[in-house]
Every structure is written in structure tokens, then in C-alpha cells.
Amino acid sequence: MSTTILGIESSCDETAAAVCKDGKIINNIIATQSIHESYGGVVPELASRAHQKNLIPVINEALVAADIKMSDLDAIAYTQGPGLLGALLVGSSFAKTAAMALGIPIIPINHMQAHVLAHFIEDPMPEFPFLCLTVSGGHTQIVRVNSHLDMSIIGQSKDDAVGEAFDKCAKLLGVGYPGGPKIDQLAKTGDAKRFTFPHSDIPDLDYSFSGIKTAFMYFLRDGMKKNDQFINENINDLAASLQGTLIDMLFVKLKLAAKREKIKNIAIAGGVSANSGLRNRLLSDADKYGWKVFIPKFEYCTDNAAMIATAGYYHLKAGKTGTLRDSPQPRMSF
Ligand code: KG4
Ligand code: ZN
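That is the input. Now the predicted structure with KG4 docked in place:
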């Protein structure tokens, strides 16, 4: 039997919709909310309003591009959490209303699991079991993935996410929001060995990224005291050294996890997996440790609805659907 699923993503500052037919993504529509740039970070209330404004046009665009009508849908998958409550409410309210009107199943999806399942949008797909380093603006996780729906977090950040460290340090450098892509760009022509920043000392497979942000702040302050052009004159080396430290911190634990779990299939996912330094490091470590690595296309790293629709497909196939009583879960884990 053929299945057509609409996926909806509204957990943070991207309003997105995608149509998936029999596990194949037909389109992936995203409306990015540029309003947050002038505030230097996502403003939750403005995000909810922008979702409210953009959601129906984005869904309509996805349906038109797939040449289908709402009545052709067999199920609707939406992001249940984690994310901003007001933002999640917009997507989930639409999903529940539409599913009720159409009399079709509704599928609540965990956004972080969907980042992992973005690897199943297109070939090459990872073989099970694999480890996925899921790195975003809100989370940093090492996930052991046994099957599409059986996965567990074996290590994670105890405080800030690595994306948050990128964004906050970018703000200290005065390069604007979102900071990750800006640091990535600046780092391309910088010397990553020029400055050193301390690694956090956290046991097992967990991470901490709040210390580096503070260390970076004091480092910049001291530099500026001696030379008020310190940041301007050294911005590329500062970005490259910071990025290098963050990547080193990520890979120390990833390497440990691969050894401990005896797994050589290694994937990356989430917004920070778009970072060119991180992608290159994964490729060079693959050679060094004999890993088979999986790197998503750029469009499937950052928030999108193709990953939500794909996650919906695997849930529906397993008979795992939700109810109209499900509510958004801002701090959802798995
Ligand atoms: O997965 P995502 O789009 O949204 C969340 O679920 O949080 O991730 C957003 C995060 C932001 O912190 C952003 O700065 C970071 O991903 N990011 C990057 C790059 N592109 C996006 N960080 C480093 N380098 C990049 N090229
Ligand atoms: Zn995300």
C-alpha cells in the first residue's frame, strides 16, 4: 500500500514542511526566520508569530510542489519536542486539527531522533548499529543507533550545546547571529594552532561547553586591554582556534565511544554537522581509525521537515502513531 506523509517542523526558528511518498522525500520547503538576526539570537515570542504566519503557506507550497491535495495524505508527522513551547504549539495544533479533519493518523516525532534519521532520506544510508554525533543549537549527543526506532543517548552535554558555544563566542567576536556558519567561514583562512583554549574535564562520554565560552570571553577581554584592535586584527585565527578546540572536544569523546561500543560506522547530524572543519575532521579520522563515515547533505543538517517526514515514515511502518491528546514536550528526551 502506498503512503503519503506530510512532515511539519516548527521547533525553533525554521518553519518547514515536506512530503514523503513511500519513504522517498518529494520536496523540502523551509522558511527561515531572519527576524532573529537583529536580536542576536532566537526570540521565542517572535518565533511563534513567524511560525503562525509562515506555516500554512509553507505547507501549501509543499503540497503544490508534490502535486497533491490535503485529502491525498495518509498521515501527518510533526515535531513534538524538544524545542520552544510556543513554536511547537503552532506546528502541533495544525497537525492535530488537520489529522482530525481528514481522519488520518498523527505521528509525534522527537526532533533529535529525526536529525539522526535524516541519514535515511537518501543513499548512502548507514548500516546498523552506528554511532551518531548529533550536534545542534540546543543539544550535543552521542547516540547509539540499533535500528530506525531503537536508539539511545550514550553521552551528552551537561550544560551548553556545542552550537550554543559557537553562537555565543561569535557574539563575543561581534560577527552576528547565527554564529556557527560565520565562525566556519572566518576559520577557513585562520590558523587553528595560533591560540589555545582549555578543554573541559568531564568523565565518560559526556560533554561540557560552558567553560570554553567563559575562557574565550576572558581571553578576548585581556587581548583587547593590550590592543583595542585585537579582535579585528586576529579574527580569522581566533575563529579557527576556537573552532579547532570545539571540534577536538567533540572528537575525543566520539573516539572513546567508538572504542567502547566497538562500532566503526560513524555518522554526524544536526546544524553543527554543516561545519566544514568538523566534516573534514570526520573524514581524516575515518582514515586514521578505519571508520566508515556518513555525512548528511547540507540541507539535511540544519532544521528541516524532510527528516520529520522520514521519521514519520518509519514510525508509521512500525504502527507507532500518536493521539490527538499528545501535547508538545519542550524538554523531550529519548
Ligand atoms: O539543528 P539546528 O539547525 O537547530 C537546532 O535544532 O538547534 O542547529 C542550529 C545550530 C546553531 O547553533 C548554528 O550556529 C549551528 O547549528 N550551525 C553551525 C553551522 N551551521 C549551523 N555551526 C558551525 N558551523 C556551521 N557551518
Ligand atoms: Zn535541530
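The chain has two domains: 4-116+303-317, 127-296.
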